[in-house]
Amino acid sequence: MKEIATAALINMSINEQAKLALAYVPGAVDTVIRTIGDSQSKELKSVAAGLLYSLIINDELKTIICLKDSLWDSVIGLLKETSGKCKSEALKLLFVLAKDERWRNKLMQEDNELISLLISLLTAGMPKLTEDCLTVISLLARSGAGTKAILDDKSSIPIFVYLLNSGSPRAQENAASVLNNICQQDGNVKEILPLQTLIPALNSLMRGGSDRGKFKAASLLRVLDSDTAPSLSTASNLSDAEADLYPEMSSELRSAESVPVMPTYADAESSSVLQVPQSLNTVSTPSSEP
Questions:
Q1: CA 61 – CA 100 distance, rounded (Å)
Q2: Terminal-residue alpha carbon distance, the chain
Q3: What is the dihedral of CA 250, 255, 261, 263, to 10 degrees?
């Protein structure tokens, strides 16, 4: 019955006025967050998270919700669930939070293991989750704390390079975006990147990617001072602002007009594990010299 009631609330919350009314009912948002954090039912957790997402995409409500201390542990806990559907809903919430600089910094302060959790999902063998994990990581990499946490995980760079070479088209774009944002935050990162592998992959993305992929590839090539780097104006029809407007998330998340219907993912236990080639698993330590 709880699942049915929560699903009904989700449908009601599609209406903007009903959504505002729901958010201001005393204790309503707290109950939803508590359900995400404490329920023993994975199905109920994911449905409640979908409801919270339908509220948090409203900028006015986002501030109210993000000031609730219980939110952060509940979202991170949802990401830790073995259910692929729970992970998917957690990534949707993290995407909305990480787009905003204030809440992005709050995420990095609240849970030091967030980056490690996201990176571990990249090798779980679930393509859609991989793509959306890269989205969130790319946004977190726009902060100094996010970049530091990424680089502290020694497996991160080899995984990003592997996905840029061998991932799905959207994963390739997103991996380029992650590496570009990391390099923008820390210039020394260029010294540990395997350029012999990376530059051909970026050139391939330039030739066959989407406008956004071409833009991100060109931007990273310029950061790497590659001789093959084109100008950004010739690489893509997108402006820098347009390329970053909806950074890397599934197209379903690009509209704040309705609650997206996301695909149901297989549970993590039944997924194949991505094997990163050994040749990409060794990186040198960046120099401390500027």
A1: 14
A2: 61
A3: 0
Q: At what angle do helices 28-38 and 42-56 cross, to 10 degrees?
A: 140
Average pLDDT over residues 106-114: 79
Helices 114-122 and 127-140, packing angle to 10 deg: 150
Look up tokens 């219980």; give the residue. 70
The structure tokens 């209406």 sit at 15
234 versus 10: the higher-pLDDT residue is 10
Nearest-angstrom CA–CA distance, 162 and 164: 5
**What domains can be seen in the chain, in order of their start residue?**
1-111 (1.25.10.10), 113-251+269-283 (1.25.10)
Q: Is the dihedral of CA 252, 258, 264, 267 positive or negative?
A: positive
C-beta neighbour count of 127 within 10 angstroms:
15
Tens of pLDDT, residues 47-79:
889 889 989 998 889 999 999 999 999 999 999
Distance CA 147, CA 229 (A): 24
CA 96, 74, 182, 192 torsion: positive or negative?
A: negative
Q: Are the beta carbons of 242 and 123 closer than 8 angstroms?
A: no
Contacts 24+ apart (CB under 8 A), 50-54: 50/10, 50/89, 50/259, 51/6, 51/9, 51/10, 51/13, 52/93, 53/89, 53/92, 53/93, 53/96, 53/259, 54/10, 54/13, 54/14, 54/19, 54/259
What is the distance between the alpha carbons of residues 75 and 44, in angstroms, rounded to a whole number? Answer: 14
Q: With bands split at pLDDT 50, 70 and 90, how would you rate the model's confidence at 2? A: low
Q: Nearest CA to 3 among 55, 39, 57, 28?
A: 39
pTM over 0.70: yes
Cα dihedral across residues 89, 159, 224, 237: positive or negative:
negative
